[in-house]
Amino acid sequence: MNKPHYQYQTSADGQYYFFESIGKNTIPKVVGYILRDEKSQLVELVFGDLIDNQRIDVMAVSDNQDLELVITTVIDTLADYLERFPEKTVYFQGSTPSRTRLYRAAIAKSLSQIEHLYEVFGVLPNDQLETFNKSHHYQAYIIRKKYEI
Amino acid sequence: MKSNTATAPKQPTFDVEKLPALFKDSPSVQKLLKESDTLLAKLKLPPRPTAQ
After folding, report:
1. How does residue A2 score in pLDDT terms, banded at 50, 70 and 90?
2. Are the CB atoms for A119 and B51 separated by under 8 Å?
3. Helix or strand (DSSP H, E) at A55
4. How close is the nearest chain B Cα to the Cα of A148, in Å?
5. H/E element holding A32?
6. B 1-52: CB under 8 A from A
7. Is the ipTM reported for this complex over the cut 0.95?
8. Alpha-carbon dihedral A64, A80, A110, A40, rounded to 10 degrees
9. Mean pLDDT, chain A, as a whole number?
10. Are B12 and A50 contacting, i.e. CB atoms less than 8 angstroms apart?
Protein backbone atom coordinates (compact mmCIF):
# COMPACT_ATOMS: atom_id res chain seq x y z
CA MET A 1 0.00 0.00 0.00
CA ASN A 2 2.76 2.39 -0.99
CA LYS A 3 0.75 4.55 -3.36
CA PRO A 4 0.67 8.36 -3.06
CA HIS A 5 -1.52 9.44 -0.18
CA TYR A 6 -2.11 12.43 2.05
CA GLN A 7 -0.04 13.03 5.13
CA TYR A 8 -1.95 12.10 8.26
CA GLN A 9 -1.83 12.54 12.01
CA THR A 10 -2.59 9.75 14.45
CA SER A 11 -3.99 9.99 17.96
CA ALA A 12 -1.81 8.85 20.84
CA ASP A 13 -3.84 5.66 21.28
CA GLY A 14 -3.49 4.88 17.56
CA GLN A 15 -7.25 4.53 17.03
CA TYR A 16 -7.92 7.79 15.15
CA TYR A 17 -6.45 9.46 12.09
CA PHE A 18 -6.77 12.95 10.62
CA PHE A 19 -5.77 14.28 7.22
CA GLU A 20 -6.72 17.05 4.83
CA SER A 21 -8.08 16.58 1.33
CA ILE A 22 -6.56 19.27 -0.85
CA GLY A 23 -8.42 19.89 -4.08
CA LYS A 24 -10.74 22.72 -4.97
CA ASN A 25 -11.02 23.19 -1.22
CA THR A 26 -9.13 21.97 1.84
CA ILE A 27 -11.41 19.51 3.61
CA PRO A 28 -10.50 17.85 6.92
CA LYS A 29 -11.05 14.07 6.91
CA VAL A 30 -11.04 11.64 9.80
CA VAL A 31 -10.78 7.88 10.19
CA GLY A 32 -11.63 6.05 13.39
CA TYR A 33 -11.18 2.41 14.30
CA ILE A 34 -14.07 1.72 16.65
CA LEU A 35 -14.03 -1.42 18.79
CA ARG A 36 -17.11 -3.52 18.02
CA ASP A 37 -16.33 -6.85 19.68
CA GLU A 38 -13.81 -7.23 22.47
CA LYS A 39 -13.57 -11.01 22.29
CA SER A 40 -12.72 -11.20 18.60
CA GLN A 41 -10.88 -7.84 18.63
CA LEU A 42 -13.11 -6.72 15.78
CA VAL A 43 -13.03 -3.00 14.98
CA GLU A 44 -14.99 -0.99 12.45
CA LEU A 45 -13.30 1.55 10.20
CA VAL A 46 -15.39 4.72 10.14
CA PHE A 47 -14.45 7.47 7.67
CA GLY A 48 -15.95 10.91 7.31
CA ASP A 49 -15.53 14.66 6.94
CA LEU A 50 -14.81 16.79 9.98
CA ILE A 51 -17.33 19.63 9.92
CA ASP A 52 -16.41 22.91 11.65
CA ASN A 53 -14.07 20.94 13.97
CA GLN A 54 -17.24 19.97 15.84
CA ARG A 55 -18.84 16.91 14.28
CA ILE A 56 -18.17 14.11 11.84
CA ASP A 57 -20.33 13.52 8.78
CA VAL A 58 -19.87 10.07 7.24
CA MET A 59 -22.31 10.91 4.44
CA ALA A 60 -20.63 14.11 3.24
CA VAL A 61 -19.95 14.30 -0.49
CA SER A 62 -17.27 16.91 -1.01
CA ASP A 63 -16.48 16.41 -4.74
CA ASN A 64 -12.98 17.76 -4.16
CA GLN A 65 -11.54 16.11 -7.29
CA ASP A 66 -9.09 13.95 -5.34
CA LEU A 67 -11.26 10.94 -4.59
CA GLU A 68 -8.66 8.30 -5.46
CA LEU A 69 -6.06 10.01 -3.27
CA VAL A 70 -8.53 10.20 -0.39
CA ILE A 71 -9.51 6.53 -0.66
CA THR A 72 -5.85 5.52 -0.96
CA THR A 73 -5.12 7.49 2.22
CA VAL A 74 -7.95 5.73 4.07
CA ILE A 75 -6.56 2.35 2.95
CA ASP A 76 -3.09 3.47 4.03
CA THR A 77 -4.36 4.26 7.52
CA LEU A 78 -5.68 0.69 7.56
CA ALA A 79 -2.24 -0.72 6.78
CA ASP A 80 -0.71 1.53 9.45
CA TYR A 81 -3.35 0.47 11.97
CA LEU A 82 -2.77 -3.25 11.39
CA GLU A 83 0.97 -2.75 11.76
CA ARG A 84 0.33 -1.19 15.17
CA PHE A 85 -2.39 -3.65 16.17
CA PRO A 86 -1.82 -6.92 14.32
CA GLU A 87 -4.29 -8.76 16.56
CA LYS A 88 -7.19 -6.65 15.26
CA THR A 89 -9.67 -7.58 12.57
CA VAL A 90 -11.04 -4.58 10.68
CA TYR A 91 -14.56 -4.44 9.26
CA PHE A 92 -15.52 -1.65 6.90
CA GLN A 93 -18.16 -0.62 4.44
CA GLY A 94 -18.79 2.54 2.50
CA SER A 95 -21.37 4.92 3.91
CA THR A 96 -22.96 4.72 0.46
CA PRO A 97 -22.99 1.91 -2.15
CA SER A 98 -20.71 3.95 -4.41
CA ARG A 99 -18.12 4.30 -1.64
CA THR A 100 -18.32 0.57 -0.98
CA ARG A 101 -17.51 0.05 -4.68
CA LEU A 102 -14.60 2.49 -4.41
CA TYR A 103 -13.17 0.48 -1.53
CA ARG A 104 -13.47 -2.64 -3.68
CA ALA A 105 -11.54 -0.95 -6.49
CA ALA A 106 -8.86 0.24 -4.07
CA ILE A 107 -8.47 -3.24 -2.55
CA ALA A 108 -8.39 -4.85 -5.99
CA LYS A 109 -5.60 -2.49 -7.07
CA SER A 110 -3.52 -3.29 -4.00
CA LEU A 111 -4.34 -6.96 -3.65
CA SER A 112 -1.29 -8.37 -5.39
CA GLN A 113 0.94 -6.36 -3.02
CA ILE A 114 -0.91 -7.20 0.18
CA GLU A 115 -2.28 -10.73 -0.16
CA HIS A 116 0.86 -12.27 1.33
CA LEU A 117 0.40 -10.10 4.44
CA TYR A 118 -3.33 -9.87 4.91
CA GLU A 119 -6.46 -11.95 4.68
CA VAL A 120 -9.15 -10.00 2.85
CA PHE A 121 -12.79 -11.09 2.90
CA GLY A 122 -15.85 -9.70 1.19
CA VAL A 123 -19.33 -9.85 2.70
CA LEU A 124 -21.70 -10.99 -0.02
CA PRO A 125 -25.25 -9.64 -0.36
CA ASN A 126 -26.50 -12.82 1.37
CA ASP A 127 -24.32 -11.93 4.41
CA GLN A 128 -21.87 -14.76 3.76
CA LEU A 129 -18.12 -14.19 3.85
CA GLU A 130 -15.76 -15.23 1.11
CA THR A 131 -12.14 -14.55 0.27
CA PHE A 132 -12.06 -11.26 -1.64
CA ASN A 133 -12.63 -11.62 -5.36
CA LYS A 134 -12.24 -8.41 -7.33
CA SER A 135 -15.03 -9.34 -9.73
CA HIS A 136 -17.63 -9.87 -7.01
CA HIS A 137 -19.90 -7.29 -5.42
CA TYR A 138 -19.78 -6.92 -1.66
CA GLN A 139 -21.64 -4.98 0.98
CA ALA A 140 -18.65 -4.80 3.32
CA TYR A 141 -15.07 -5.97 3.75
CA ILE A 142 -12.99 -7.56 6.46
CA ILE A 143 -9.21 -7.47 6.59
CA ARG A 144 -6.71 -8.85 9.10
CA LYS A 145 -3.07 -9.82 9.31
CA LYS A 146 -2.52 -13.22 7.86
CA TYR A 147 -0.84 -14.98 10.71
CA GLU A 148 -1.62 -15.20 14.38
CA ILE A 149 0.86 -13.19 16.41
CA MET B 1 1.40 11.37 17.42
CA LYS B 2 2.75 9.99 14.17
CA SER B 3 3.03 11.54 10.76
CA ASN B 4 4.26 10.00 7.57
CA THR B 5 5.85 11.01 4.31
CA ALA B 6 3.20 11.66 1.73
CA THR B 7 1.86 13.99 -0.92
CA ALA B 8 0.45 16.86 1.13
CA PRO B 9 2.59 19.98 1.02
CA LYS B 10 2.09 20.83 4.68
CA GLN B 11 1.53 19.06 7.95
CA PRO B 12 -2.17 19.09 8.77
CA THR B 13 -2.91 20.58 12.14
CA PHE B 14 -5.76 19.45 14.33
CA ASP B 15 -5.93 18.23 17.90
CA VAL B 16 -6.53 14.57 17.09
CA GLU B 17 -7.13 13.80 20.75
CA LYS B 18 -10.54 15.43 20.30
CA LEU B 19 -11.57 12.74 17.83
CA PRO B 20 -12.81 10.03 20.26
CA ALA B 21 -15.42 12.41 21.67
CA LEU B 22 -16.37 13.67 18.21
CA PHE B 23 -16.91 10.13 16.92
CA LYS B 24 -19.02 9.34 19.98
CA ASP B 25 -21.13 12.47 19.68
CA SER B 26 -21.68 12.63 15.92
CA PRO B 27 -25.14 11.39 14.91
CA SER B 28 -24.07 10.14 11.47
CA VAL B 29 -21.29 8.01 13.01
CA GLN B 30 -23.66 6.49 15.52
CA LYS B 31 -26.21 5.83 12.76
CA LEU B 32 -23.58 4.03 10.67
CA LEU B 33 -22.50 1.91 13.65
CA LYS B 34 -26.10 1.03 14.42
CA GLU B 35 -26.66 -0.04 10.81
CA SER B 36 -23.56 -2.26 11.01
CA ASP B 37 -24.81 -4.01 14.13
CA THR B 38 -27.24 -6.24 12.26
CA LEU B 39 -24.68 -7.42 9.73
CA LEU B 40 -21.90 -7.87 12.28
CA ALA B 41 -24.16 -10.08 14.38
CA LYS B 42 -24.53 -12.47 11.44
CA LEU B 43 -20.89 -12.70 10.40
CA LYS B 44 -18.89 -15.77 11.28
CA LEU B 45 -15.19 -15.16 10.84
CA PRO B 46 -13.06 -18.20 10.04
CA PRO B 47 -10.28 -18.87 12.56
CA ARG B 48 -7.05 -17.08 11.81
CA PRO B 49 -4.45 -19.46 10.38
CA THR B 50 -1.38 -19.89 12.54
CA ALA B 51 2.13 -19.21 11.27
CA GLN B 52 4.02 -22.23 10.02
Report:
1. low
2. no
3. strand A55-57
4. 5
5. strand A26-37
6. 1-9, 11-12, 14, 16-20, 22-23, 25-29, 31-33, 36, 39-40, 42-46, 48-51
7. no
8. -110
9. 90
10. no
List the domain boundaries for chain A.
9-145
Is pLDDT at B21 greater than 90 in this prediction?
yes
For residue B4, give the nearest of A7, A28, A58 by CB distance. A7
A63: left (phi over 0), alpha (psi -120 to 50) or beta: left
* A72, amino acid identity: T
Of A30, A73, A144, the CB nearest to B19: A30
What is the rounded distance in angstroms from the CA atom of residue B10 to the CA atom of residue B5? 11
Could you tell me the pTM of the whole model?
0.88
pLDDT given for residue B3 in this prediction: 46
Split at pLDDT 50, 70, 90, the class of B10 is low
